[in-house]
Each structure stands twice: as C-alpha cells, then as structure tokens.
TrEMBL record:
InterPro entries: ABC_transptr_periplasmic_BD, Bact_iron-sidero_bind. Residues 20-44 have a biased composition (Low complexity). It comes from the Archaea. Its main location: other. This is Fe/B12 periplasmic-binding domain-containing protein. Keywords: Signal, Transport. It is found in: Cell envelope. Transmembrane segments: none annotated. Residues 20-46 are annotated as: Disordered. Residues 169-328 form the Fe/B12 periplasmic-binding domain. It comes from Halarchaeum acidiphilum MH1-52-1.
C-alpha cells in the first residue's frame, strides 16, 4: 500500500457503525460540531447521504477512496487528497495544476486500471480507506459485484457513502439521478470530515461569484438557448446526446446558473439525436459538456469547432455560423472545477459583460478573473 499524502487530515483511524434515522442523524451531527470547528477529538456523529443508510462515525475519517468523478474534486476542495482512486486519465488535474495545488499520484493506491474497468477487491483491501466516496450502484455497474461483495469490503475497511452527482431527472432519465445539488452534497461530505467551517468559507466564495454573475445577466427573455451535448461531441458522427438543464443536473450546472434556456426544454430525447433534430431546435449556443476538463483549447478547436464548421449539416446551425460553440466542465465537476467552468461559460456567452474568453483556461488575465485564485487556495488550505 502506497503512503497517503502528507496533507491528509491529522486524525485517528475511523471507527464507525451504521444505523439510526434521519432525526438522529441531524441531531448527532449538529450537537457534536455546534461551534463549526474541525476536530479529530469530536464525539460520535451521524451523517445521512442518500441513497445510503445513516452512518455513525466514532472518529473523523483520515483517508478516503473515490472513483474519478466529482467527489474527487469535493475531497480536494476540502484540502484532502484521496488515498485511493481509479484511473485518473480524465480527472480534473489540469485545474489543480493551474492553482499549484499539490496532487501526488505516487501516494495513491489504484483501485482499478481504468475509470470503468479493471476493478479488484484486493486493491480495496490494500487501500483500507476509512470511507469510500463511491456510489454502490456505480461500483456494481462497473464490476458486476452484488451487495454481499460490497458488504464484505465494508466489513474489512470503511463504509461506502457515495452519491450520484451528474444527471438531472427527466422523463427519459428516472434512475441514477442526483438526490442533491453540488453544494448540498458538498455540505454532507464536509460533515463527514468535520470541516463545516471550511464549507461555510466555500459557500461564501461561491455566493460572491454568483452575485457577480447574477448582477451581469440580461433579462430572462433575452437570455440565449443552448443545446448541452455530453459523452463527447463528434460533429462528423451526426449523433448527439442532449443533457438537460436542471437544478439537479450537475454536469450542466454552468449553463443553468448562467440563466441559459434549454433548447430541448420539455422534449428531451431518450437517446442520441441527429442533425435533423438539432437543426429543428437550432440553439443559440452548442455546449460541449466536459470539454473544458477533457480537452485543451487546441484540441477543442480541432475536434469540435472546426469539424462543425466544415460539416455540410453543421454549417446550417446558427450556433456554428455565429461562432457560438462553447465548452464547460461536466462529469467531473466538483467545487473547484465549478468555479473555473462558471467563469469560462460566463465569458464565452457574455463577453461584453464578463470579459473576453481567451481560449486556454489558464490565460484569463488576473484583472479579468471572476473569482480570486488566492482566496480559493486560502479556503482549501483552511486559512479562513
């Protein structure tokens, strides 16, 4: 087992028990942290994170394991590097690099060879995390394991307390949708690690950014429409998957909070659509969900923008004609990625108000940034 990062919480190993109801969970968590401070000597406390049962911690967990998704960014936002992950090929490491936020891959146990394959129980035993920020249904889907397999791992390590942070509920998508918004889930995990004061500092930073955004938005009837496309955008394939805009849709959060209107509102396709349906909607903007994280500016232009402009059908889209093919964070968007993505979409859609978008994420001039990078780092490092 590889050593965990030196920046992890200086707390004891987590002891724990499950059970209790919602009322007990709320009372215990509140009474043990009434001053909002972080301490490794806290009394036992219970946290209820849907769809899991309430769980009682006897000590603050020191280590956690996670798949490469938004909960990795949640942990990093609290200043805690994971001790175990799946493959990191699509993880939002570029944003940590931009902040000079340390992420030491040498101190991480790999749970699987990829994000969705190559899982081995022995890796979980070797990692021996105090808590797993991995949804059980996600793990079952990638591994074929049943409840007994997961309970076996829990009995020898820590509990699984992951939750889904991606999809919004629609008529086409009813299972696997999010029970929480990003910040609702973030508060739950801040309680797991007893970092409520840090969460409140994050919330203040988030609210200040949103106040800036909301002050600059045009009237609702003047806001543009967007078709948010996920699972990659390949213009020459002629196949596009549309992601809805919704308060619980974490992967399209950046468009929703910028007040953009969903070009497919009320008639979300249940599967991929083609150019005919995209042309019928003819959105003002086409959004590449996740493209801000997974692609460089040059890759985005080469694989998304130029192919749309050179495609016989793509050329007929208003968004393509007007240079309104944009990109955002998506699948891996936790609090850190969310700030960068909100800034990027604001500048791409409303440059006259929020400043021109330079293309590469790291090239926003300091005096044109919509959030303070140093303040962000101070919150992460608990200098608050």
């Amino acid at each position: 087992m590889l050593a965990t990062s030196a920046g992890l919480l200086a707390a004891g190993l987590a002891g724990c028990s499950s059970g209790g109801n919602d009322a007990e969970a709320s009372t215990n968590a509140t009474s043990s942290t009434s001053d909002g401070t972080s301490t490794a000597d806290t009394e036992s406390y219970t946290v209820h994170i849907e769809p899991n049962d309430p769980y009682t911690f006897e000590e603050v967990p020191e280590s956690y394991g996670v798949v490469s998704g938004p909960l990795l960014d949640v942990g990093m936002s609290l200043g805690i590097q994971p001790s175990a992950t799946t493959g990191l090929e699509r993880a939002p490491l570029k944003f940590y690099d931009l902040l000079d936020l340390e992420f030491d891959e040498s101190g991480i146990t790999k749970l699987a060879s990829g994000a969705e394959s190559g899982y081995d129980k022995e890796n979980f035993y070797a990692a021996d995390a105090d808590v797993w920020l991995i949804p059980e249904n996600t793990l079952a889907r990638f591994t074929g394991w049943d409840d007994s397999d997961i309970h076996e791992i829990e009995s020898q390590t820590g509990p699984f307390l992951g939750t889904t942070l991606r999809f919004a509920p629609t008529a086409a998508v009813s299972n696997g949708t999010n029970p929480y918004t990003l910040y609702e889930a973030f508060e739950k995990y801040a309680t797991v690690f007893q970092r409520q004061k840090q969460f409140h500092a994050w919330q203040s930073l988030h609210d200040d950014l949103m106040a800036t955004i909301e002050d600059g938005l045009p009237p609702e009837d003047e806001r543009p429409t967007v078709a948010a496309i996920w699972r990659g955008v390949s213009p020459d394939s002629g196949q596009f998957r549309i992601a809805p805009l919704h308060r619980l849709g974490n992967n399209t959060k950046s468009y929703y909070r910028l007040g953009m209107r969903d070009a497919f509102e009320g008639h979300y396709p249940g599967g991929p659509i083609g150019y005919e349906e995209l042309l019928d909607a003819d959105p003002d903007y086409i959004g590449a969900v996740g493209g801000l994280t997974s692609l460089t500016h040059e890759e985005f232009v080469d694989t998304v923008v130029d192919p749309f402009e050179n495609n016989e059908n793509g050329q007929d889209l208003s968004a393509v004609q007007n240079g309104n093919v944009i990109r955002s964070g998506g699948q891996y968007m936790g609090p850190i990625v969310d700030l960068f993505s909100t800034e990027a979409v604001a500048k791409q859609v409303y440059p006259d108000t929020f400043g021109e978008w330079p293309g590469p994420v790291g090239e926003v001039p300091e005096d044109e940034r919509l959030f303070d990078r140093q303040r962000l780092l101070d919150v992460i490092h608990q200098n608050v």
